[in-house]
Structure formats: structure tokens, C-alpha cells
Amino acid sequence: MIPHMKDARFTIPTPALLVKVVDELEKINMDDRDTKGDLYEYMLGKIASAGQNGQFRTPRHIIQLMVELMAPGTGDVICDPASGTCGFLVAANEYLRKHHPEVLTDAKLKEHFHQRMFHGFDFDNTMLRIGSMNMLLHGVENPDVRYKDSLAQEHSEDEEAYTLILANPPFAGNLDYENTTKDLQAIVKTKKTELLFLALFLRLLKTGGRAAVIVPDGVLFGSSKAHKELRKILVEDQKLDAVISLPSGVFKPYAGVSTAILMFTKTNSGGTDEVWFYDVQADGLSLDDKRSNLLPDDKQGVCRLNL
Questions:
Q1: What is the pLDDT of residue 7?
Q2: Which of 50-59, 90-99, 166-175, 232-241 has the lowest mean pLDDT?
Q3: Exposure check for the chain: N or C terminus, fewer CB within 10 A?
Q4: What confidence score (pLDDT) does residue 307 get?
Q5: What is the reported pTM?
Q6: CB of 238 closer than 8 Å to CB of 270
Q7: Average pLDDT for residues 28-41, to the nearest whole number?
Q8: In three state form, how does the secondary structure of the chain look?
Q9: Domains of the chain by range and CATH?
């Protein structure tokens, strides 16, 4: 039994509602993995408020954009240290199935895919349950989705263990120094969660590993010593590949904060010669709390251009 499934409860309060749920589900053909996964994603999409610990749902098309840009390969070991519902891991799984179908036919690659490729950490048991079920319904047999307070627990067992990090960690928070693991404070002395998570990503990545992560604009423009120090590390000690600015309404109705996607490669020897900057003005949805479609469905989402 998965430890975080202990004491899980699923309550349907009335017999009539249970009958209605069963009748509606009975109409759907559940033989297909994609159908079950899509149904689960639909239910997650109806979560209309932020979690107790500052989690909020990353829009699926933003996740898909980040995954497409990072192009996971069959040998990657992928981690999201603030995994929530495991949206990034699910999208990476779908990308690999589409672009590298050999992960399901080659015995060695299949074993790696199901047993060692996907890793997610969270310290909210509800999120762990949802994330584990999400991965299972999307066809990953044994993902490593486990309880871990990523900023408070030591990382010796996970240090330099991953080749790809995809994440949208909680930010705009502060932790006491005594509640933050010392190995992160050694990289950057700060209480700010967004800076601590970037330090964590550098800790977890193998040399040559890469990351695509969402950060608040403060990481780019903050004037504190810690902000400047971390930017210096990314630009001078590592290889900063891209900064993609997102519209401030992308995460509504949960939050209206301005954010950006940072893409970087861990080198420990620099290499930042050129950085790709891109300013996203719109994402196909309205930037108010309603987030209504502004384009037809076939125009939404990630598109590959054949240049």
C-alpha cells in the first residue's frame, strides 16, 4: 500500500448522487488510458481555489509548452520537487509516448520508464494522493511520488540524481532559517522560497542536467543581496538558456502575480554566451478570472512550426 494513501476518504453524501455518478461514468468507455486520464484532468481542472500551502494548478498549455521546449529523452530521470497533482510528470510521460514510442516496446527502456524515470515530491498528503492517481491513470506503473518537504529536509540521497527538472514551486513565501535545510543555505543565504527552490534545483540536477521552472518576476528584478547572488550563479556558474516572460493573468483566478519561465543547464563552469528572451503577450485565453477561450479549440495549445 502506498503510505500516503492511508486514511484517504472519498465521500459521496447521498445515495441519489452516487447513482448519478455511476450512471454518468457508465456512459464513458474506460478501456482507453487517455480517456481515464482526460477525465481525471477534467476533475482537477474544476479545482477552483488554491491549496492550503499555496499550491495552484498550472495551466495545462503552459506545462505542455515547457515540456516541448525541454524535449525529454528516453534516458532522462525527471523530477518535480513541488509536484502537486503531478501535471508536469504526466505531460512528460505523454510527450515520451508520442515522440519516443520505443519507451513502451524496448524492454530496457520500458523498465526505466515505469520504474525510475518519474519522481515527484510534496508535503501535502492530499496532493500526493491526487498526483499518484494521476500518474497511474496516465499509464506509469511505479512512479516515485513521495512525501518530502523539499526545503526543510536534507538532500544527500537526491543530490545530483536527476537530468531534468520541471516545476512550478510555491513562491512569494518566507521560511525561518532554522526551518530551512543547511545545504540550500550554503548555496544562497535567504528566507525567500522562490530563491531556495532555485538553489534546490541546482542541488538536485546532475552536471549537464537541465531545468524549466516558473519563477516570480522578483527573481529576475529583485535587488536584495540574495537575488543578485542567485542571478550571478545562474549566469556565471551555470548556463542560462532562456527567460520567457508570461502575462500576469496566466494563473488567475488563483493569483495575478507576474511570472517567467527560466530554462537553464547545470554546468558548474558557466557557458552563458547568449540568452533567449521572449515576452508572451497572450496565451489564447482571457487574462481575467474567467480565463475564457479567445481562440477555437484547434488553435489552442502548443503548435510546432515547420520552418
A1: 61
A2: 50-59
A3: C
A4: 45
A5: 0.86
A6: yes
A7: 64
A8: CCHHHCCCCCCCCCHHHHHHHHHHHHCCCCCCHHHHHHHHHHHHHCCCCCCCCCCCCCCHHHHHHHHHHHCCCCCCCEEECCCCCCHHHHHHHHHHHHHCHHHHCCHHHHHHHHHCCEEEEECCHHHHHHHHHHHHHCCCCCCEEEECCCCCCCCCCCCCCEEEEEECCCCCCECCHHHCCHHHHCCCCCCEHHHHHHHHHHHHEEEEEEEEEEEEHHHHHCCCHHHHHHHHHHHHHCEEEEEEEECCCCCCCCCCCCEEEEEEECCCCCCCCCCEEEECCCCCECCCCCCCECCCHHHCCCCCCCC
A9: 24-296 (3.40.50.150)
Pairing of strands 239-246, 276-279: parallel
Q: What are phi and psi of 108, to 5 degrees?
A: -65, -45
Grid cell, residue 204, equals 538536485
Among residues 147, 140, 134, 155, the alpha carbon closest in space to that of 199 is found at 155
Q: What percent of the chain has pLDDT over 90?
A: 49
Q: Residue 37 and residue 138: Cα distance in Å, rounded?
A: 5
Q: What is the torsional sign of CA 224, 229, 235, 239?
A: negative
Cell numbers found for residue 172: 512569494
pLDDT confidence tier of residue 48, bands split at 50, 70 and 90: very low
Cα–Cα distance for residue pair 106/95, rounded to 1 Å: 17
Dist CA 72 CA 239 (whole Å): 18
263 vs 103: CA distance, rounded Å: 25
